[in-house]
Amino acid sequence: MVFIHEVSKRRGRTLFRLFSFFLLVIVIYVGIATPLIPALVIRDTQSNQVVWRANIHNEAAFGIRWTHSIHRSTIEEQYRIVDGQIILSEMSFHDYGIGMENELAPGEELILADGRFHVRNMQRSFPALRLFIGQVRANHTLLFAGQDIPLSLIYKPGEAITIQAEKRSILSELGGY
Q1: Per-residue confidence of the chain (177 residues) as pLDDT tens digits?
Q2: What is the pTM of this model?
Q3: 124: which of 15, 88, 133, 168 fits an S-S bond (Cβ 3.0–4.6 Å)?
């Protein structure tokens, strides 16, 4: 009788240890697979493959600069990231004409300073930005963390990309997806 009781006790401890081990594995997996790390991500629009990413904090800022195909002048847009949304906050350009802002939203203001037009106090929200990297003269450039990064160095000119803010997990950071 004592022998059966000991075997039963050992079996109970073994099952408890096995259950504890599997519970620990699940907790670790959930911990590394849960998206917690905010990042600015550029993906190939067609395949959804990440081609560039950088960790950020909320209220991070970045810009995009390019040369307008008709005016052949530089346009620069400034963005903020708020709660996963990309907010266009300011735009500046040299020439006012085809393809440029022609109406201001309430609260926005148009200012002429330093020989450039500036549309300020913009609050235009986007879940993501989609664009084709220019092949000829657009020279799309990402302005991020004090650096000017030509998008043609990040991905192939002529290809469609999607820029978005997202939360990434430790697992996705290690695996790159």
Answers
A1: 555 556 566 777 888 888 888 877 877 777 677 767 889 999 999 999 999 999 998 779 999 999 987 778 899 999 999 988 999 999 999 877 676 667 889 999 999 998 899 999 999 999 999 999 998 888 999 999 999 999 999 999 999 999 999 988 777 767 655
A2: 0.78
A3: 88
Q: Residue 25 is inside which H or E element, if any?
A: helix 2-33
Q: CA distances (Å), 139 to each of 17, 33, 121, in order?
A: 60, 37, 26
Q: Where are the extended beta strands (E) located within the chain? A: 37-44, 50-55, 61-67, 74-82, 85-93, 109-113, 116-120, 124-126, 129-132, 141-144, 147-150, 160-168
Q: For the CA atoms of the chain, what is the radius of gyration?
A: 25
